[in-house]
Amino acid sequence: MSIKKKIFLFLAGAVMISLLVVAVLPSPVPVNVDRVQLGYFAEYVEDEGFTSLRFTHAISAPISGYLHRITLEPGDVVAAGDTLLAMESLPAPALDRRARDQARENLEAARARFMAAKAEHENLEHGTSLARKELERHARLYEQGVISLATLDRVRNDLDRSISAQDAAQANVQAAGYEMENARAALEVASGARSGENQLLTVKSPVNAVILNRERYQEGVIHAGEFILEMGRLDELEVQVDLLSIHAVRVRPGMRVILEHWGGPGDLEGKVRLVEPAGFKKVSALGVDEQRVPVLVEITSARDEWLGLGHGYRVEAKFILWEDDQTTFIPTSSLFRLDNNWHVFVVQGERAGLRQVVPGRRSGLNTQILEGLEPGELIITHPGDRIRPGIRVNPESG
Fold it and tell me: How far out from the chain centre does Cα 365 lie?
């Protein structure tokens, strides 16, 4: 056999052996990878909230009466001292036909008594005038010695009695006049119409504010204490977030809050004003009982940045529990437990390497790494059951 033929057979055998080796070796496992990051990291809790006013002014009817129609609408701006509503006394009830006829007859009877009292007064007035003249004549006769003092005293007594009777008649005339006016007023109120002479009671705005809610605007009878308007200052707008109690215990007044998805451009800044000491039970959409705690957030961004926000609008609040500008972190999906310790798979060349790590704080989809990894290293996210130390992998960007 020639040398060329031997060389050809040797090469062919090597190729066959290589093909067999390749066929026997397992193919690389495709994996999703990501790099260890170094940068800003924040631990936070987030939940939905709504805007509310720290102080509102509820305007109610101060007395029972008749409310005039209210022209103010939600969104209208009012100044301190502006009239919010006007009221007057209740109108008299309407009279039926029988009552009207009776009122008319009462008026005629009252008029007759008035005329009789007036005539009696005039009669007594003439009698008093005559008694006064009699007293003057008897006084001259007494001075001349014609009559006695007793006779003069009787004449003077007659004058005094006549004056008293005249005064009584004058009082009867006034009483009859009042009865006649009362009867006339009862007759005039026949359909419950309001008198234009009623004195109006106006309610003024206590502050410069915006009308938030209008419960009543039609005119009509209203009772004392009945709610009519709600008003407030939108400059005092804040956000209320009902956090789970396990999260609320970690929140402190003064903590930074980022307000997201409120409808305007960019995020708004805020800070925790108050964590209320009492919680309440709320049933979630899944029917689970949850203990919630109201947390009030003051909006610290400039007013011009959130002019579109109103009372009762929905926002999302992110409470920053801890933050740092230079922190190593990885996707939380890369971590897994092994022998009671946390591990990740690191891509070294074309193979997966097992690495023990010490995780720190968690924030959303990321976790802080205190020990075990360096920024820039390539790690496997979502490692499956096929991933083992030393196995060949085919990295794909996660």
Answer: 35
CA dihedral defined by 134, 140, 141, 142, rounded to 10 degrees?
A: 100
H helices within the chain, ranges in order? 3-24, 97-144, 149-188, 245-248
CA distance readout (Å), 195 to 68, 172, 178, 202: 13, 29, 19, 17
Structure tokens at 271: 């800070």
Which DSSP helix (H) or strand (E) runs through 66? strand 65-67
Q: Which single residue is written with the structure tokens 């002014």?
A: 57
Dist. CA 141–CA 134, nearest whole Å = 11
Element spanning 81, H or E: none
Kindly report the number of other CB atoms within 10 A of residue 9's CB atom: 11
23 pLDDT higher than 50: no
Distance CA 227, CA 255 (A): 37
Both tokens assigned to 308:
């579109």
Helix (H, G, I), strand (E, B) or coil at 44: strand
Share of the chain above pLDDT 70, in %: 88
342-378 confidence digits (pLDDT tens): 999 999 888 889 999 999 999 889 999 999 999 999 9
| Closest-CA residue to 71 (of 204, 230, 214) | 214
Q: Which of 236, 270, 235 is nearest to 251 (CA)?
A: 270
- Cα 380 to Cα 356: distance, rounded to the nearest angstrom: 14
Question: Distance between CA atoms of 342 and 356, rounded to whole angstroms?
Answer: 6
Tokens 């009877």: give the residue: 109
> Which single residue is written with the structure tokens 């070294």?
348
CA-wise closest residue to 396 among 37, 29, 30: 30
Which range is least confidently modeled, 180-184, 259-263, 269-273, 337-341?
A: 180-184
∠ CA 346-348-349, nearest 5°, is 145
Q: pLDDT tens across 122-146, in order?
A: 888 888 888 788 878 877 877 877 7
CA distance 276 to 270: 17
**Does 277 or 133 have the greater pLDDT score?**
277
